[in-house]
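Provenance and format

Records in this collection were gathered into a single text stream. Each protein contributes a sequence line and a C-alpha cell line. The two records reproduced below are adjacent in the stream.
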Amino acid sequence: MSIVTNKKEKKFLTEEELKTLKEIQTQTQALIVELGEIEITKLQLEERKEKGKIFLQTLTQREKDFSKSMFDKYGDINIIPESGEIQKMK
C-alpha cells in the first residue's frame, strides 16, 4: 500500500504505460472470449461424439439383425452389396 503525503497530489501513468495497460486488458478480454468459445465448441463436439456413439450402436445392431435374418433365410451366403447377388458359401 502506498503512502500518500498530500491528498491533493494525484499521480498518473505515462501515456505509454496507460496504452500498454489498456492493450493488456483488451487482449485479456479477447482471450477470455476465445477460451469461452473453445469450451462451447468442445461441449458441442462431445455432444456430437455421444450421438455418434449411439448411432454406431444402433447401426451395428441393425447390421447384426440383418445378417442374422439373411442367414436364417438363405443359409451361409455371401452377398455382393453393389448388385444384391447372393452367392452360396462353399
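Adjacent record:
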Amino acid sequence: MNRVTLYTRRDCHLCDEAKTAIRASGVEVDLREVDVDTDPDLVSRYGTDVPVIVVDGVEAFRHRVDAKAFADSVRAPRAQQPLANEKCVPCHGGVPPVKGDELRALAQQLSQGWRVVHEHHLEKDFTFPDFAQALAFTNEVGAIAEEEQHHPDIYLAWGKVRITLWTHAIDGLSRGDFVLAAKIDARHQR
C-alpha cells in the first residue's frame, strides 16, 4: 500500500479538492493529512504553496490533482529514482518507523559503509587525510541538512567524521533518513 502525505492548510479549497480526488481515485492508500500551519518548519517550507501530495516519500503533485491523474501516477510502474534525488519529507510523529523488508530495501540503495544499527539508526564513518578536510565535509553535511530540514548527529575528529541518522519524532528510521544518507554520499563522492 502506498503511503500518501497530504500537506494542507485550513480553509483551503484546493486542499479539500485534492483530498476528494485521492479518495475518489479508487486506489487504496495510507493517507496522512498534515496541516502545515501546525509546524513552523512546514510553514517555512511550503507557506501557502499547498496542497502538496507526497507519495512514498516523493512529491507527486502540487496545487491540483484529479482522481484519474492520481490513480495513474500511483499505479504506474516507477523507475527506481535514486534516493539522492528525493526531498526529505518532514516527519512529525504518528507514523511507524521503517522496519523489516522496507528497511532492507532502502538500505540496499545506499553506498557501502552505512550500517543499520538495531533497525533504529544509520551510521557511517568517513575518513580524510587531515582535520581541515574533515571539517569542510562536516560543513557540507550541515548545509545539506539545513536545505533538507533534516539534521544528523555529527562527530568530528582529526581525519574522521561519523554521521548518525534517525528520525527523533518517531524514535526510529524514516525514509528521510535514507534520503539524507544518499545525499551525503553524493556530496562526498564529488
